[in-house]
What we know:
Oligomer: single chain
Order of helices and strands: EHEHHEH
Amino acid sequence: MKKILSFGYDTERPYGFWAETNKGKDFRNKQLEFIKKLNKMLDSNNCPRTFFILGDYLFRCLDNFDKKTLREIYNSENLLIEIQQHSFSYQIFRNLGRDDKKHYLYLIFAKMFPMQIKF
């Protein structure tokens, strides 16, 4: 039986103020290098994928790369690759601490599996 696996990858950080810092630029460069390597590996396995790209992130990429280079990195002509808009930007309302995350996950799973969740 043949199985098809497809990957989705959110490409969104850094964005906002952090994107303008040197750390943000370094992070973006590393992420784009990763995307090149990821595409090479997935191409060698004939694996389809979708990149969900935040508009603000893509806009900031133009600080370091021209449009032609970005098209090459995302391999936009490749039939195995789909590029989708993730939105232009979004705000982080607040960071969740470890206890907040545990409580939040509990609420989600408690609704899905009411009698099976024990923490």
